[in-house]
Amino acid sequence: MKPKLKKYFEKWCKIVDKALDFYLPKENVEPKKIHKAMRYSIFAGGKRLRPVLVVAGAEVCGMSGQKVLAQACALEMIHTYSLIHDDLPAMDDDDLRRGRPTNHKVFGEAAAILAGDALLTYAFKIASKNGKINGSAIPEVVHAIAVGAGTEGMVGGQAIDIEMEGGRWMKLSRKKQEEVLDRIHENKTAALIQASVISGAKLAGASPKQQKALMEYGRCIGLAFQIADDVLDVVADKKLLGKKGSDKENKKLTYVALFGLDKSREMANALVAKAKKSLEIFGNRGWVLSDLADYIVERTH
Amino acid sequence: MKPKLKKYFEKWCKIVDKALDFYLPKENVEPKKIHKAMRYSIFAGGKRLRPVLVVAGAEVCGMSGQKVLAQACALEMIHTYSLIHDDLPAMDDDDLRRGRPTNHKVFGEAAAILAGDALLTYAFKIASKNGKINGSAIPEVVHAIAVGAGTEGMVGGQAIDIEMEGGRWMKLSRKKQEEVLDRIHENKTAALIQASVISGAKLAGASPKQQKALMEYGRCIGLAFQIADDVLDVVADKKLLGKKGSDKENKKLTYVALFGLDKSREMANALVAKAKKSLEIFGNRGWVLSDLADYIVERTH
Predict the structure, then answer these.
(1) From the list B30, B145, B155, which residue is nearest A114 (CB)?
(2) DSSP B1
(3) DSSP 8-state symbol, B25
(4) 117-146 in A: which are within 8 Å (CB) of B?
(5) A108 in contact with B, Cβ within 8 Å
(6) Which of A38, A121, A143 should one mutate to test binding to chain B, selecting the residue with the greatest count of B CBs within 10 A?
(7) What is the pLDDT along chain B (301 residues), one digit of tens a residue?
(8) B77 touches chain A (CB under 8 A)
(9) Exposed/middle/buried for A237, CB within 10 Å: 0-12, 13-18, 19+?
(10) Range of the domain at A214
(11) Does B172 reach chain A within 8 Å, measured CB to CB?
């Protein structure tokens, strides 16, 4: 990560963490176990990519990131709920995430399901209230977040991902495999990343042209992010990732499985270039989002 | 149910069902399995109490129910998601609901979790967009729905309910038992019923005094509804309810367990009287909500 971006990220991660602590229900309030479970996963060392994208989406359109912290936290809550539910025994059945026991391993399945439900619900509670914003942007933002999180977005991607598990994608034609892979990741990863950057932009009163550019940016870095993850799964230290078994062992449909390492890296680079191109209309103000796009592929080298 | 209320209910149930069909994603759109699972539970013979309360909440404050159908459907989606997740093996582990196989029995656990997540997300998607409503009511309504559905509301009630399972409440003092029982049901049932009636009212531009009255009405009928459920569990035909084992067999903390049948019925009647009293400020326009309150205890006799 470039030093200037690193500084920006570190600054906003601290601010976002404080805001999350403020918005989340306290552990000493009933239902204590659920509140503890919510906080356990929120403060589990996430990169805060989505909230920083909300902030950067607002700032590239001329509004201070301080004004969009509620929505920034909402996006992190939705991301976290999705991880908790994805890790459940009935879903990916993961015992570890980032090297720590997963939510249901610590709090039990029932509490993990409810903690996920509660985080999703809380996200909409805080996204719908923001005293720092005037006008009609709030309903639009809530709507965009819900679209990014629902079956047209994140849940839809996870659903197809699960359907393809255990190598079931291998029965499809090559063309169909590529289509399904793109659909999974446009939905599972890119949609919520788009929702993040567009939430900040909408709150800042972005023009339709600016919004269109940022949606394209979000789609490209979302896909690039996923390709980078697939590459990392092959090249990185399993212990560092805290994952159970490699994608290959799990016969997972990934970019590396379909295209190999070199071509996957190439595709990620091309998407990052496209993402950066879509930022041109913002001039110098686009530096955070531009450097962020670079950082996403940096991880794969 | 009084004939006039029955007619009102039947009329609005048909309208709500059509609106649900309109707002829900189609079964032939990917992810098909999740969309099928969502529709399976939405069209499983629910009473549509919450959407009718949204409609009646708007109409008692002078707005046509036709204008609040989006929010009416949102409340039914949230209610339905909660049933799907409550029935999961890790939660109440129910195989049947209203005599039909539960969602996870038909579609599997992973799909049931995702279908619940998707319904909750969809609820906020449609609640945040309503072209028929002017002004700033929408964010307030979204917020009220999220409060009613989250850990201060429905999820909170379910969490405490699960904590008290298997007779764990028996270790508490009598006073504490009564407190916990009230807390469970104010949260688990009443909070979403309050959110329903207040959503309609807010959309109709209700005054603070009207909103206060309807929140009290919602709390009272919500609790009465739960007491009625506890009574029904004892007196009704198990097959008709489609439930697995009685509350007594499950050592469940219920009003009947703490107060007996007669006293429970008395408490429900008193709550209904209180609910009806809070409607006085609406004059004749309060008839739907008033008759509805009567209907709730009617079921127990």
Answers:
(1) B155
(2) -
(3) P
(4) 117-118, 120-122, 124-125, 128-129, 138-140, 142-143, 145-146
(5) yes
(6) A121
(7) 899 999 999 999 999 999 999 999 999 999 999 999 999 999 998 999 999 999 999 999 999 999 999 999 999 999 999 999 999 999 999 999 989 999 999 999 999 999 999 999 999 999 999 778 876 899 999 999 999 999 999 999 999 998 898 889 999 999 999 999 999 989 999 999 999 999 999 999 999 999 999 999 999 999 999 999 899 888 876 555 555 667 777 788 999 999 999 999 999 999 999 999 999 999 999 999 999 999 988 876 5
(8) no
(9) exposed
(10) 3-298
(11) no
CB contacts of B24 in chain A (<8 Å) are none
Q: Mind telling me how many Å the CA of B285 is from chain A's nearest CA?
A: 30
Question: Do B195 and B141 touch, CB atoms closer than 8 A?
Answer: no
> CB of A96 within 8 A of CB of A102?
yes
CB–CB of B114 and A155 under 8 A? yes
Q: Do A125 and B150 touch (CB under 8 A)?
A: yes
Distance (Å, rounded) from C-alpha B65 to C-alpha B53?
A: 10
User: Is the minimum CB–CB distance between A151 and chain B shorter than 8 Å?
Assistant: yes
Contacts of A180 in chain B (CB under 8 A): none
Extract the tokens encoding A188: 């599972």
Tokens of B55: 């409609």
Burial track B55-72 (b if 16+ CB lie within 10 A, e otherwise):
bbbbbbbebebebbbbbb
Mutate to test the interface with A, among B29, B94, B124 (most CBs of A within 10 A): B124
**CA trace torsion A83, A85, A86, A89 (10° rounding):** 130
Cα A174 from Cα A212, distance rounded (Å):
31
pLDDT, tens digit (0-9, with 9 covering 90-100), for A259-282: 999 999 999 999 999 999 999 999
pLDDT of residue B242: 55
* Partner B contacted by A44 (CB < 8 A): no
A121·B116 Cβ contact <8 A:
no
Give the total number of structural domains in chain A.
1
User: pLDDT by residue (tens digit) across A49-85?
Assistant: 999 999 999 999 999 999 999 999 999 999 999 999 9
C-alpha distance from residue A175 to each of A169, A172, A180, A231, A258 (Å) = 11, 8, 9, 21, 11
User: CB contact, 8 Å: A93 with chain B?
Assistant: no
Angle between helix A69-86 and helix A137-149 axes, rounded to 10 deg: 20
CB A103 within 8 A of CB A112: yes
Select the residue from A91, A104, A107, A124 to test the B interface by mutation, using most B Cβ atoms within 10 A.
A124
Task: Find the length of chain B.
Answer: 301
Residue of chain A with shortest Cα separation from B112: A90
pLDDT for the residue B165: 85
**CA quadruple B155, B156, B159, B161: dihedral, nearest 10:** -110
Whether residue B142 and residue A146 make contact (CB cut-off 8 A), yes or no, is: no
Residue with tokens 């009685």: B246
Nearest to A150 by CA among B169, B274, B119: B119
B221 touches chain A (CB under 8 A): no
Model pLDDT, residue B249: 77
Complex ipTM: 0.95
Mean pLDDT of chain A: 93
Please state the separation of Cα B270 from the chain's center in Å: 20
* CATH number for the domain harbouring residue A280: 1.10.600.10
